[in-house]
Amino acid sequence: MNVEMNTVAPARGLGWRWLCGTTAAAGLWFWLYGNLTAMADFVVAALGQSRQTALGEALHFFVYDTPKVLLLLTGIVFLMGVIQTFFAPERTRALLSGRRTGMGNVLAAGLGIVTPFCSCSAVPFFIGFLSAGVPLGVTFSFLIAAPMINEVALALLFGMFGWQVALLYLGLGLLVAILAGLVIGHLKMEAHLEDWVRAIQAGTPASFAGGGMSWVQRGRAGLDHVRDIVAKVWPYVVAGIALGAGIHGYVPEDFMASFMGKDVWWAVPAAVVLGVPMYTNAAGIIPVVEALIGKGAALGTVLAFMMSVIALSAPEMIILRKALKPRLIATFAGVVALGILLVGYVFNAVL
């Protein structure tokens, strides 16, 4: 009895310490986030610059956006790290295996939101899902949603453009992932998987036997997630913001408006084609998106560019070639590109 009480007491004490520490960290986060403009103004003035000059405006953009993006990234990744303790990869495979077309596509696209992989990182899961018996079209819905609608993209869109843009992006991105998966599944293209993938598709569906976790353990998982994800993407953040700052300060507004404006019908297809050869993630590309929009580019056109960068990258296609034959890769790219084009035109029409 005494041993049991002695064990429970330290556990409760640890839980209270984690609660107090998390509350203090959240308070510091909100204080820093609320004082970003004042900090950027102070740095620009301390360096003897003025926002009326191109250099001063570019510097202000960089000093303001860098901590803003990193704060958003850290906060959202921590929360998603906690949420992901309920959605381990094994459990995700178990949830999707045996699912039929339709509801399986919806579920796969929804799970893609809480699994923040870049396009290349999602490919091993794609292959694992196939080997677990997940239908091809359902698996493609996950592959499309995971990089395109992850928490980093949504958090940064929310922070930079407001909840309306983030919510519309979420809805249209899910629609693209679901419909593209349905189309590919309807085409019955399993014969265009590489032989070694088809050979393992007959494996036993995945199972998951997860045990309960305490909130302290989930909090630690969130911190581990921050260390893992933020450590990988912060160079992309800084590079993307630096490029965005240069665009914001030095690129003429008329040039961007003429190339990516609403009135240019070919702007959306051109943006998609331009984005495919590039490779970065949402943390690196969204600051560039913000700068382009600030220069007069249409939101839908720029978001179509962003989606093609993070969902149809050339490195992803190269990795997919290990598992898919060229015709299936071309079908996947064509269907997703068509969905992205529609998203770009819808955003331009309604905003």
Structural features, described:
By secondary structure, this protein is mostly helical. The longest helix has 36 residues, at 215-250. It has 17 helices and no strands. Helix 11 (215-250) packs parallel to helix 14 (282-294). It is 77% helix and 0% strand.
What would the keywords be for this entry?
351 residues, 77% helix, 0% strand, 17 helices, mainly alpha
What is this entry, summarized?
This protein has 351 residues and is mainly α. It has helices spanning 2-34, 36-46, 54-83, 89-96, 103-113, 119-131, 136-148, 151-161, 163-186, 195-200, 215-250, 253-260, 267-275, 282-294, 299-311, 314-320, 326-350.
Distance between the termini: 65 Å
Please state the structural category: mainly alpha
Uncertain spans, ≥5 residues at pLDDT below 50?
1-5, 203-210
Query: Helix tally?
Result: 17
Strand percentage, roughly? under 5%
> What's the helix-strand series?
HHHHHHHHHHHHHHHHH
In round numbers, the mean pLDDT is 76
The tally of strands reads 0
State the helical fraction. over 70%
Biggest sheet features: none
Radius of gyration: 22 Å
The outline comes out as flat
In terms of quaternary structure, the protein is single chain
